[in-house]
Fold this sequence. Notes:
Layout: E1 10-18, H1 22-31, E2 39-42, H2 52-55, H3 108-116, H4 124-127, E3 138-140, H5 148-161, E4 177-180, E5 182-186, E6 191-192, H6 195-200, E7 209-212, E8 216-222, E9 228-234, E10 240-251, H7 254-264, E11 267-268, H8 270-275, E12 282-283, E13 295-296, E14 299-303, E15 317-321, E16 332-337, E17 356-362, E18 371-373, E19 384-386, H9 396-412, E20 421-426, H10 434-443, E21 446-447, E22 479-481, H11 496-511, H12 516-522
Parallel strand pairs: 1-2, 1-10, 2-7, 10-22, 11-12
Antiparallel strand pairs: 3-5, 4-15, 5-6, 8-9, 9-10, 13-21, 14-17, 14-20, 15-16, 16-17, 18-19
Amino acid sequence: MAPTIAHGAESAYDYVIVGGGTAGCVLAARLSEDPDCRVCVVEGGPSDIGDERILRLRNWINLLGSEFDYGYTTVEQPRGNSHILHSRARVLGGCSSHNTLISFLPLPQDLDDWVSRGCSGWDPATILPYRDRLLTQIVPVAEADRNPIAQDFVTAASRALGVPVVDDFNAEPFADGTGFFSLAYQPEGNLRSSASVAYLHPVLDRPNLTLLLETWAHRLLPDESGRLTRVAVRGADGEPAAVRAERELLLCAGAIDTPRLLLLSGLGPADDLRALGIGVRADLPGVGENLLDHPESVIVWETAGPLPPNSAMDSDAGLFLRRDKGQPRPDLMFHFYQVPFTVNTERLGYPVPAYGVCMTPNVPRARSTGRMWLRSNNPAEHPALDFRYFTDAEGHDERTIVDGLKVAREVAATDPLRDWLVREVAPGPDVVSDADLSEYGRRVAHTVYHPAGTCRMGAPDDPMAVCDPELRLLGVEGVRIVDASVFPTMPTINPMVTVLLAAERAADLILDRPGPAEQEARQ
């Protein structure tokens, strides 16, 4: 049972971590390694311990829209899909307790992009060695979980496109390729190796670690000196209380709820805050801006009958492609689903096959960026999210989806995958022009649940930076941000491991200790 705090009470710790998600679990474990350091985690959701719905990876799809989902929506998307449910996890472990746990190290060029944006100390030589500290078990999909149709997809993709079959995408940086993903899971039992499972479960008996579950943080408060050291929360009993950090507040609530918390606390674009009747504590125009995502579309095929039942999480294999061979990173990605993902095609009137598969062409580094903002000063009201999908002036994102639908058809027409497929259900073989493929591809587009960038870190001369390269919130003292909201640009591939690496890095920054690369250099 998680501790509770009494109505109106204020409890004090050395560090208060707001958000027990992917990054928050790492920080809680690392900071509480010192038995004299008191650490508190404020998490709005329940525990994942012993809950098979959470712990079994293949059940991820049933968590979407469930009691474990905050269920954010978007404003109208004139060039995209306005009906996307942006699932954000409401459970210990955050999205690592909720997602498919596809695990990729960031490509070196992704981190180079950050350095070019003024984020010194985030270069590949500094960050990538943290992989050896990760406690999550990251392994390629086990042989027993490799469904025959997914294997045939990999073979067909390699044959059709001339890309290599990759055994382990984390073995070395790659330019393109197809293969089974690496997952943070334990194949025996299909159990998650989430941030919660790997970092927190083994240390929950530490007397200096406190978890406040079902406890929602909604405002940062100053102490007598004006320093932001306190968090106003509402406990599981609905009663208000406060938690105080004597060293630092660490915001790990994610790319939607971290900026939301800052805005509610008077930290953000001054004019917007005043218009809502929120007192301005620091004018930070970048809070809520630079909203990033990995948009993807879908193309669906019917199969002749049910597929073999084995799988890790029903999207175990994928494809990475460079349309521009002069570049070192993929600019088109696919997930291959062993189930027909029809939530968006069905809404447009397409049939739902009894048995089927789909490919989801994905934009790795989308050039369309959005923003989020508060609708009111009521903490309970969901913020407005405008991802501005497919609005980049060059049409890069739209072109990527059109090319992706065409490439998917090439793969589907190639043996041995071709022999599994009966017909293309959506959009159907009659949809062939670029204009029609674009219209379809954008209207059925979805998210891979990777919002990022809304509190981006940057150089001192970056007017839209929200935190510095040591993750310290600008304009105030004693607050750091550690989650995907600090990303200045989106990593090419699934970003969960990048969040884990950032949290491990943050622990060293907070404690002012050398990272693994610096330690090795001293030896």
